[in-house]
Amino acid sequence: MAGENRVFRIDIRMLDPDAEVRRLFGAKVLEKKVAKNQKQHPKKTILVKTKEQWPPVSSFPGISMNICSSQPSSDGTYYEITWSSTYEQIQREFYVCVETADPYSFQDILAYHPYHVDSLLQLCQLCIQTGDLNTAGDMIERCLYVFENAWHQRFNPSGPISCFLDFDKPENRSFFLAILKHIQLLGRRGCQRTSLEFAKLLIGLDPKDPLWVRAIFDYHCLRGKENAYLVRLYEQNVVVADLPLSSLPNFCFSVALAQFSIEQSQGKKPPSDSITSTSTSTSTTTTTSSSSSSNPSSFTKSDELLQKAIQQYPSIFARMMNKAGVAMKGVSGGIVLAADPLTTMPYFKDSHELPVLLERLACVFIEKNHTLWKSPEVIQWIKSNLAEIIPKLSTEQPPKISETWVQLSQNTENLPLILSPMADNAAPLPPELFQRDHGPAHIRLPVEQQQQQQQQ
Known about the structure:
Layout: H1 2-7, H2 17-25, H3 31-37, E1 63-67, E2 76-83, H4 85-100, H5 103-112, H6 117-130, H7 133-150, E3 162-165, H8 170-189, H9 192-205, H10 214-223, H11 227-235, E4 239-240, E5 243-244, H12 249-265, E6 285-287, H13 301-312, H14 314-324, E7 330-332, E8 335-337, H15 341-344, H16 356-369, H17 376-393, H18 403-409, E9 434-435, E10 439-440, H19 447-455
Parallel strand pairs: 2-3
Antiparallel strand pairs: 1-2, 4-5, 6-8, 7-8, 9-10
Helix pairs in contact: 4-5, 5-6, 6-7, 6-8, 7-8, 8-9, 9-10, 10-12, 11-12, 12-13, 13-14, 13-17, 14-16
C-alpha cells in the first residue's frame, strides 16, 4: 500500500475552499468574510479556518490522539483517537439521545459541550435534510477543528511518512464521517478541487477505504479538472483495499471521459460528423461512408478506453445514458444508428440482478456523474464509438459479472457503511445504516461498553 498511499498524498494548499472560491470568482467575494473570521483564534490550522463566534476549543478538553503501538506498519504510523473520562460520560449521554431519536436532545448536549463531535454530526445531518447548509457546514468545520487540535505532534497527513487511523476503532470513526460530510458540503458549494483533496485525505487515512470513497473519487477528479491525475491512477493500476481502481465501473467510464477532455485541450477534436435523427430504417446500423475510426489517426486513446468500458459494463452504460436523457439514434462516424441500441439490443440489458455492491456503485456513479455526459461534444464522441462497436456487439453475449463482485457483496459486515453518506441529495439516511441495538453504525458502542450495558 506504500506506493498507493503516496499517490493520494495531499497538498495542504488545496484544502482551503475560500482560496478555490477566489480562484473561481475573484478575491472580492470573500474579503469581508475573511476579515471577520480571522480576528481571533490566531492558531494556524490546516483543515478549516477558525471563526470568531466559536468558543475556544481549550474550554472543552476530552479528545486526544496517541500513537497506536498495537498496530505497527512498515508503510507508516498508526494513530488512534482517545477520549477522556469526561468525554466518555458525555458520549454515554449521547447514546441515550440516539435511542430517543429526539434532535433537540443533541442541542441540549451542545449547549453545555459545544465541541461534542457526534452531536455536531447528528445535527449536521438534520440541517442537510432541512436545507440549512450554512449551519451544517459550520458544524462540520467545528468537528474538524476539534480533531486537528487533538492531533499528535507527529501526525502530519501531508508529510513524507504516512499517517493512518483504523476505522474499526469506534473512537476514530467520527473523524472519517466528519471529513466525508465536509466533502459532501464542499461539493454543494462548488468547491470540487477542495473536495478532491479531502477525498485524498480520507482514502489515505485507512488503506481499507471502509467508506468507499473510491465510489466518488473519479467524480471529484473530473469536476476539479484533475483529468491527468485521474488517468494516471488508472494507468498505474492503483489498488485500494485489494481491488484495482481500473476494475470499478465509475473509474472505467470516468477515465475515458478524462482522456477525452485531455485530447480536446490538445486540439484533437471529436469526429465532425453531423448528429441527426433518422426516422425510419429496417436495420439497426447502415453504413453510409467509411467509419471515422477506419482512419487510424482518428482513433484516439479515449476511444479505446470508452469502448472497453462499454463492453465491460454495458448495462450500467445504458442506464447512465437513460438517466442523462441521451438517445443514441442518429448519424455518426459514417454509420446510421436507426434505432437506439441501448434500448433495443439484449447486450445492453441486465440478464440478471447485479451483486449488491456493484449495484450500489452503479447507482452512485449514475446519480452523480450523468450530467457530465450530456454536452454535445461528449454525445457526438459516444455515438461515434458506439456506432463503431455495434456490429461486433450485435453477435455477442453480455459479459459475465466477475466473481470478485459476488464475493465482495457477500461480505456483509461493512455493507451497511458502504456509500451511505455519498448522495448529494437531502434524503434521510437509508434504513440499513441503523443497527438494531445501537443506532447509526458509525456511532455504535465499543464491544466492551455494549457488554457493560447488557450487564446493567
